[in-house]
Amino acid sequence: MEKVVSLAKRRGFVFQSSEIYGGLNGCWDYGPLGVEMLNNLKQAWWRSMTFRDDVEGVDASILMHPKVWEASGHVANFTDPMVDCKQCKSRYRVDVLMDELNTKKKKDVLREMFPGQFDGQQPDEKIVAEFAARIATDETVAQAVRILACPNCGTKGSFTEARQFNLMFKTFVGPVEDSNNVVFLRPETAQGIFVNFLNVQSASRQKLPFGIAQIGKAFRNEINTKNFLFRTREFEQMEMQYFVKPGEEDRFFEYWREERMKWFLELGMKPENLQWHKHEKLAHYAKAAFDIEFKFPFGWGEVEGIHSRTNFDLSQHEQFSGKSLKYFDEQSKEKFVPYVIETSVGASRSFMAFLCASYDEEMVAGADGEAGEVRTVLHLHPKLAPMKAAILPLVNRDGMDDLARNLTKDLQKYFRVFYDDSGAIGRRYRRQDEIGTPYCFTVDSQTLTDQTVTVRERDSMKQERIAMSAVRDYLLERI
Ligand code: ATP
Questions:
Q1: Residues 6+ apart with CB under 8 A from 44
Q2: pTM metric for this prediction
Q3: Is 232's C-beta closer than 6 angstroms to any atom of ligand 1?
Q4: What is the CATH number of domain 2-78+168-356?
Q5: What is the best residue among 222, 235, 241, 275 to mutate for testing ligand 1's pocket, by most ligand atoms within 8 Å of CB?
């Protein structure tokens, strides 16, 4: 993880927000390469979602009517139980506190909390997970907190009572800062889709089943931010709500589960680094929920949630707004509130997953029979790579640099490419490997006579010669 974070900073993928002031916890800035890669990732999602007949896009505003969040349940329920250590003043989310205990300690805590339940046996992993879930959600929180020791100062029994903490950021519209003017920074993008359901449906004349997709910023005042981009206070989500006739939700739930897993795999994720996590405990309105988890260097973590949400969200908005959100089915002449399948993936969190998945250090033979060396490489899918190609004149003379510059200019009409003429060629290749550039085109003395260039492929490091005039199509085909 440290290596990925360090590369991200050194090569301009991600910087700490307001770094010169010491940073702001849970906020990050995307640098020159990061913003390219993030845009590529969002573009890949947008294409896969909306370059089809049955999904429309929207871009709703971040600030919404405050009643939206009452209807959605966020005002009442979007909370985490939180405790403070009276000794050292550290603040923790109770479930995170439980997660951070190593398994052995967790077992001891469980035995202390639930005496007699394990009959002197070691609770197995499944039971540990089950009890940890109970601890995180129900009244046993208070009990757990009394037993746990503070991970920072080690004091036992020093925690305050658990308090519910709402994760929404509040601000005010207009000059008067009173309770009538409170608005929230949206904690998810989905509500902007729900409230626009009928607008989009009537404007686009879509018939069920159809979906609405949106990419945008979301904000959560997370108690513990951690693991780089994994849990931040400002992040981006890519969400799609698919509206279906009641009774058809199971079929489409399976369909979207398959589609979403395919998306990750097609962008180069290895199947062994992804897994499904089924939610056993569901919200009262939910029919089913699965997460796609990625194997981060610190363990498995959710990157996307796929949820079958019945007609809960639209019905809530009907009730709170007093406006009908029913769909009229022309065939059956029925009016009803559609059911919803939601796919919700973090752009920033999956950006980090793709960075981690592609990072590698490989032993390669040195130039001219020298001892081997380690090359750092990002095996990014060409679609995600911030630079699609580098154009390298072998030396800066005999017109090689002019040819390379012209090629660069030509390619820049279509792709983000990079011109580099400084340093030994091997070193230039390494610099490109490190940022995941899939192809390097080298202009050398042979180019001057036969108008061909060498293309070097990042992963195999194989080289071949192709006509300079074929470079654009070569890239188009592969990207
Ligand atoms: P978690 O349990 O990890 O907090 P969640 O279940 O609350 O996540 P959802 O509300 O389902 O997450 O959000 C959907 C997606 O948004 C997540 O899969 C994740 O990719 C992303 N996401 C949620 N919270 C954050 C955050 N604080 N920082 C970065 N990405 C986030």
A1: 263, 267, 383, 384
A2: 0.89
A3: yes
A4: 3.30.930.10
A5: 235
What are the average pLDDT values for consecutive 10-residue runs of the chain, which has 479 residues?
Answer: 96 97 96 98 98 98 97 91 88 76 67 68 66 57 73 86 89 89 96 97 96 98 89 97 97 98 98 96 91 96 97 97 95 96 98 98 75 90 98 94 97 97 94 98 96 97 96 95
| 457 Cβ neighbours under 8 A, 6+ residues apart | 438, 439, 463
Give domain limits for the chain.
2-78+168-356, 80-166, 387-478
Question: Which residues sit opposite 302 in a β-bridge?
Answer: 293
Amino acid residing at 295: K
- Cβ of 352 closer than 6 Å to ligand 1, yes or no, is no
Q: Whose CA is nearest to atom 18 of ligand 1?
A: 304
Q: CATH number of the domain at 80-166, out of 3.40.50, 3.30.40, 3.30.1340, 3.30.70?
A: 3.30.40
Q: CB of 50 within 8 A of CB of 235?
A: no
- For the 387-478 domain, the top CATH level (class) is alpha beta
